[in-house]
Specification:
Layout (H helix, E strand, L loop, with lengths): L1 H21 L7 H12 L8 H9 L3 E2 L11 H12 L5 E6 L7 H21 L7 E6 L12 H6 L2 E7 L2
Parallel strand pairs: 2-3
Antiparallel strand pairs: 1-4, 2-4
Length: 167
C-alpha cells in the first residue's frame, strides 16, 4: 500500500509540475473553479447505501490555520470522528488534505499531504486500525470550497475531509 501511495504521489507531482510549467502565469479558469465550489456546496450523494450515508453525516472536516499541519482549529472534531469510527470498524475511508491558494502550488500540495498524514497518524494513535484507512492524500489548492482570494475563503479551504470507501 505504501508503494501505491508513493507511486500515486510521484505521478501527481510529475503531472502537477508539467501542468505548472505549461500554465505559468495563467490561473485556473473561472469555470473550473466554479465547478468545484458548486460541487462541494452540494450534499454528498450516498452511492453505496446507508453505511455511506451514515459516514457522510457523522464524519466532520478538520480545519487548519494558515501554514500549519499539526494543530487543527477544531481539535474536538477529531475526537468525535474517532469515537464514531471506533463504533463502525467495518467502514473504510480516504483522508483528503487541502490547502488554500495562498503560496506556491507545489508547497500547498506538500502542506496538504502533511495535513492528511498528520490526521492519519492521530487517528491511528487513538485506536483506529490502519487497515480502515484506504489512503491519505493531499490535493493542495486543486479543489477549492471557496474561490475568492481573501482571508475568509482561504480559511474555508484549509481542511482535511473524509470520504467513504466501499469495502
Amino acid at each position: 500500500m505504501k508503494c501505491r501511495l508513493l507511486f500515486a504521489m510521484s505521478i501527481m507531482l510529475l503531472l502537477t509540475d508539467a501542468w505548472t510549467v505549461a500554465q505559468q502565469d495563467v490561473s485556473a479558469s473561472p469555470a473550473d473553479v466554479a465547478f468545484w465550489v458548486a460541487y462541494w456546496a452540494r450534499p454528498r450523494a450516498a452511492m453505496y447505501g446507508p453505511e455511506e450515508e451514515a459516514f457522510n453525516q457523522n464524519m466532520h472536516e478538520v480545519m487548519f490555520p494558515w501554514n500549519d499541519h499539526d494543530e487543527p482549529s477544531n481539535p474536538s472534531v477529531l475526537d468525535d470522528n474517532v469515537q464514531w469510527l471506533k463504533n463502525h470498524l467495518r467502514d473504510r475511508f480516504y483522508i483528503e488534505g487541502y490547502a488554500s491558494s495562498r503560496g506556491d502550488l507545489l508547497y500547498n500540495l506538500a502542506l496538504s499531504q502533511r495535513r492528511a498524514d498528520w490526521v492519519k497518524q492521530v487517528l491511528i494513535s487513538k485506536g483506529i486500525p490502519e487497515h480502515q484507512i484506504a489512503i491519505a492524500v493531499g490535493w493542495g489548492e486543486l479543489y477549492p470550497v471557496c474561490p475568492e482570494a481573501n482571508d475568509e475563503c482561504w480559511a474555508k479551504n484549509r481542511l482535511v475531509r473524509f470520504s467513504y470507501s466501499p469495502n
